[in-house]
Task: structure prediction
Amino acid sequence: MSGGVPDKCNVLLAGSGGREHALAWKLRQSPRLGKLWVDPAANAGLRQFGTPCPQGFEPRNRFHLERFLEKENVQLVVVGPEALLEQSFADDLSKPPQRLVFGPTRAAARLEWDKAWCKQLLRSANVPTAESRTFNAQQIEAALHYVRSRPDPVVVKASGLCAGKGVVVCDDAKQAEAAVQSMLLNKQHGDASAQVVIEERLHGQEVSVLALVDGSNIWMLDACQDHKQVGEGDTGPNTGGMGAYCPTPLATPEVMQFVEREVMVPTVDALRREGIDYRGVLFAGLMLTHSGPKVLEFNCRFGDPETQALMMRWQGDLLDALWRTAEGTLDGADIGFARGASCCVVVCAQGYPGTPRSGDSIEALPESITPNDTQGLQCFHGGTKPSAQAGGQPLTAGGRVIGVTALAADVQQACASATRHAAGVRFQGAFFRRDIGHRIR
Ligand code: AMP
Ligand code: GLY
Result:
């Protein structure tokens, strides 16, 4: 298959966090990258790799943004966050063949922004997933009756996007009833919890399997394991992710084959039957249960911090791979992963996952970042912003501040290196988990 990225391709990378910093770092290594525009809200690290776009990304500004991309001859738009996908960012900015978008349309991204719809699609395609039922605000009594009548604990999920805060993993029926009431009755997440999915609570190890999908071809990426809970030993509330390593030995070749054949292929086929052409990353959050892998959720974007770990090992031209995904020519891509393993440990701000402290000066990083530094350690910025004074230290501006990411010969060494260097990130109230990778030790 021919195709592939043109020489000196100008790119807009949407999204302002750690995932995008890692993508920008890798895109910068492509000899075909022309000008890189980054998010107007880009963190301090991302700003070292590209120029902040002067046009905002909000839906009402799309006309001006489109005009800007036209004027600057931007040929590829890469979309990081799910919220933009729900807001039709890909639909609005795609203009083939002059401009392609890496990231699914709103209709395709429904897999992530409408969990109730996703569960229906999975069921129709026979994709293994937790048993579930969906309820709306008129069905509160039925929902409460359902949780009381279940013999085992359940998980209550707001159907819409909640920035990772819409899932309550319950230990008993009381907790589940409270979750149902606060979502359906008290509208805890507004419209996003107008519907809830109540599903059986699964047990096992969790893995993140991401694949590039170009409409029909599927390219499986090495699997990662994230650590969702804030505390060591997997304790405390859920976060966006405290650290990830790649590859995970839990995803054996048999597991990966199963996921490709029984999860990715039937899901992409089911979307096609709905008339949906999916182009972008398809990210399956899976539980490895004793009756096989089951889908917990789909994301329609790269994961954070999975992407930091993935980019650390990525070999081949990322720009070409993203272009081909958007173009529909993935079968001509050249994608590989470095031997060994990578690990990202996220250094967070005090208070996270509640309201974090912000505005603290980041006094030290274990190693400075330069665009061409391809050594075994990278500090990807997440919630940071530049200092108000020229040449000053960056400031904290979010919960997950810096993703210290290491590459080493194996998972143990990568995690040990990332953990050791995370201690070198210094700002008021900094904390991180010292046990990333513990589940396979
Ligand atoms: P989600 O946003 O659906 O990935 O859910 C966030 C986290 O909740 C997951 O990473 C799991 O740790 C947990 N979770 C979600 N669904 C289930 C389930 N059916 N059984 C057990 N844990 C779950
Ligand atoms: N780390 C999980 C996510 O990106 O949703």
